[in-house]
Amino acid sequence: MSEAFILDGKALASALHAQVHDAVETVKRQNHVTPGLAVVLVGEDPASHVYVRTKAERCREAGMASFIHRLPASVREQDLLTLVHGLNLNYDVHGILVQLPLPDHIAEHLVLEAIAPDKDVDGFHVLNAGRLLNGVPGALAPCTPVGCLLLIRSFARDLSGMRAVVVGRSNIVGKPMALLLLQQDCTVTVAHSRSRDLAEECRRADILVAAAGRPKMVQGDWIKPGAIVVDVGINRITGDDGKVRLVGDVDFAAARDVAGAITPVPGGVGPMTVACLLRNTLIATCRQHNLELPGF
Ligand code: NAD
């Protein structure tokens, strides 16, 4: 069998980025509104710092305003909530993102639920999660699964009737991914750490989304020939040469000989997540100013 088509997240994200940039320019010119994203970062986690920097850079490249609030890991929960309430009332801020994870002494759900739902560009607020569950059109949905869906649909437009298996049931990836695939009329299975015979579940999938955070867990012989494979996992492993590198949850080398299409790590889902964050910020801005929503 021939090698799988590579779902190039970098290229697709760059195209989406260009569309957002053009739409931002139009909104600025016609409506005198500059979409603004506020990112709140608590603590010193190095990976979170890199993510936040990348998000802010992409934001500015798209012509949006970016506001970063860095707080010490020792910040009081009440002070973080006060900052979020202030951002909710700030007219220059259309999207608010609190970078996770938060320190243990802060109740994550309280902070996420303090964000105004219309500014919740991560789509983690219970109201937006509920809207997604109910299939309310245009709900602000979490960026990573939306990015996965765009990657899948760049290869197969009509997913109706396909059997989809999502490995992982987190609130930020697995569950919303399953709901988005259900909206596309897939027959969806959510597998997780307690699932029996995970390999057999995966082998049934026309669409397989791996989001477990387990390096190279999905083997080549877990994949149905011709399946679309989306690898969400970001795992840092140390190679024999002592160098740290990123691998996904799928054994890419083995899987590409079997799959019909597959995302690489890095360069697959990661760039799409950031591009979808900008898209959500644009959507949130348009909603807040009663502007026509972008058609992409
Ligand atoms: P999480 O730890 O919150 O959830 C992991 C899920 O995987 C859990 O539901 C668990 O039941 C399941 N799981 C764990 N071990 C398993 C096993 N052996 N077999 C089957 N299921 C298993 O993680 P998350 O936040 O959903 O992230 C998942 C992965 O995706 C991580 O590697 C994370 O770094 C990555 N991620 C990537 C992006 C991106 O932009 N590319 C965004 C978010 C998360």
Provide a descriptive summary of the structure in words:
The radius of gyration is 19 Å and the shape is globular. The protein has helices at residues 9-31, 46-61, 77-89, 108-114, 126-134, 143-155, 174-183, 198-203, 252-255, 269-288, and strands spanning 5-6, 36-42, 65-71, 95-98, 163-167, 187-191, 207-210, 228-231, 235-238, 244-247, 261-262. The protein contains 10 helices and 11 strands. The protein has 296 residues and is α/β, with parallel strands linked by helices. The strands form 3 sheets. Strands 1-11-8-7-5-6 form a 6-stranded parallel sheet. Strands 3-2-4 form a 3-stranded parallel sheet, sandwiched between helices. It has a two-stranded antiparallel ribbon with strand order 9-10. The structure holds nicotinamide-adenine-dinucleotide. Nicotinamide-adenine-dinucleotide (NAD) binds next to helix 10.
